[in-house]
């Protein structure tokens, strides 16, 4: 009895230590994931919300065939134009030659571009397929000089942080050699900035939330068709995804919270004396497997 | 003293209960997220691995300008063909008209298609921009009837599970009216199946893991250009993302673990009597905001 009672304080002490240890380990588990995904949350409000894409989450619920969940609509015959084999071959060669001339260009001329051409280019992007035909894209075309400059200020502020804090010295040196830094003059000079937003969800007439299946993939496909349409008319752009600027740009352009910036494309003619890095592309054999 | 010692058992009992409770809560926290993301892990091996896209994770480390991390390469002058305004306008109208005729087609004719045309279509997709010019795509073109049939078996087995277990009765009824179910005959009849894989990472010559920035967005853009190239030669396809089939198809086609299936495109001429749902597309005003 005396033994036991003399041990009581030890019991309590040991068990308290155990409890404290367990509590700490719980807190770790709670904090762990969060800190992984928001290392810079203070300097970048809502950045997670906007980088996060709910596409993955809902994949489990979705059938993989993109048009399957269309409402009950009548079917109509479909017989598109058919080309002879030699014509197909020629067309495929010509289109490849045209697209193979496309390069990402950062020196964009301030020369004006007909607005009707931009309209048609965006109409073309809008023909893209999308998960369950949700057409989850919004193209914000900025022509207004003041708004373009505000966009430049937001992007350059974030980019400067990227260069000075996020990227290693070696990388920064490489970029200096590439004459690339956080200064994005094209955001002022390009006659148009096209900011492509993905609608992460929509609304049913009933007001119920409408799932936008694969919205990021769908909008990216639309961007591919947009790039083809720009190349087809001799306009240039550079595919940029301004890091952490999405939320600020969304607010500047007054887009709703269900829309997240996917890409920013400055559009125009190449500036006189524009240069591009001398790069090669992988050959057909490097990117294709035939079975 | 007597009081304390008589309380000792109580102390121990209470504190043991507390400890057990804390242990349980730790286990919950550990299990929680996992079960969320792997509800069907038993019937679908590695499905998480393959659905998971590490693009989001690495965004934090990346500069948003896609070509910035190219190695130090010389720059060369770039002056693409320039069209007069009226030519640009005409070309933009014609390309829009052509792309606007594109529809997702599920009835594909077994008629042969010249292999050179498919080569050029894939070459064209390979001109797509990609994060840091990583070109993170592999196009597996399946012409072999036996392999196509194995692909069909894998897809239909999974699709049947989707229809019977994942989708609600109403949805399934809608699909019956749409004459759509888990039977994907086009996987046998189409002369070519193009399976598009995203390379989630690459390898440096040194053997070090090479980050493929934005690989899913890059490959999706390439798919958009692929769709444009197919439409340009009068071939049809349907953009499908076979749910949970990626891992099995990757093994069937012997692709390495860093490659994940993004899309499966059956390619050919439309079958005689092919129909498509009578759908409309959003107007320019519905998808564009001008500022």
TrEMBL record, chains A, B:
<keyword id="KW-0472">Membrane</keyword>
<keyword id="KW-1133">Transmembrane helix</keyword>
<feature type="domain" description="Nitroreductase">
    <location>
        <begin position="101"/>
        <end position="268"/>
    </location>
</feature>
<dbReference type="GO" id="GO:0005886">
    <property type="term" value="C:plasma membrane"/>
</dbReference>
<keyword id="KW-0285">Flavoprotein</keyword>
<dbReference type="InterPro" id="IPR050627">
    <property type="entry name" value="Nitroreductase/BluB"/>
</dbReference>
<keyword id="KW-0288">FMN</keyword>
<feature type="transmembrane region" description="Helical">
    <location>
        <begin position="6"/>
        <end position="23"/>
    </location>
</feature>
<keyword id="KW-0560">Oxidoreductase</keyword>
<dbReference type="Pfam" id="PF00881">
    <property type="entry name" value="Nitroreductase"/>
</dbReference>
<dbReference type="GO" id="GO:0140616">
    <property type="term" value="F:iodotyrosine deiodinase activity"/>
</dbReference>
<dbReference type="GO" id="GO:0006570">
    <property type="term" value="P:tyrosine metabolic process"/>
</dbReference>
<dbReference type="InterPro" id="IPR029479">
    <property type="entry name" value="Nitroreductase"/>
</dbReference>
<comment type="similarity">
    <text>Belongs to the nitroreductase family.</text>
</comment>
<protein>
    <recommendedName>
        <fullName>iodotyrosine deiodinase</fullName>
        <ecNumber>1.21.1.1</ecNumber>
    </recommendedName>
</protein>
<keyword id="KW-0812">Transmembrane</keyword>
<dbReference type="InterPro" id="IPR000415">
    <property type="entry name" value="Nitroreductase-like"/>
</dbReference>
